[in-house]
Amino acid sequence: MAGCCTPSEPACACGTPDVLLLACSGSSNVGQMANDAAKALEGYGQGSMYCAVAVGAQLPSFVNGVKAKPCVAIDGCPTACVRKLLENVGVKPAVHVVVTELGIKKHGEFNHTNDDIAKVVGAVVDALAAGQT
Description:
Number of domains: 1
Shape: globular
Helix content: 25-40%
Number of strands: 4
Mean pLDDT: 88
Strand content: 5-15%
Strand order of the largest sheet: 2-1-3-4
Distance between the termini: 15 Å
Largest sheet: 4 strands, parallel
């Protein structure tokens, strides 16, 4: 189901607002791509962004939130902070995507292209379509 949710088809039904999107927003290009991809996915109706930092801080209402709905963890690099913070509160993400595993090299500049974001969005959409939630 590659290409399911492209800007020309934002209303597909691969994901739902019941899916929580937790993204890295680290200080690298790939961290920012993870966050930008989550924003795009929410815009396409593929889930709702959720505060990963609040979950990491173990704020009870946020921890309860991730325990109640399927979660998508979008990490920038193999350090996998978002996946680990979910696991630390007893939640296994339904989908886990790592930007660097998509062939995008990590560096300290924040420049990236729409094609980079589309690659990350596509990986999440494909995982959702494959029924990982």
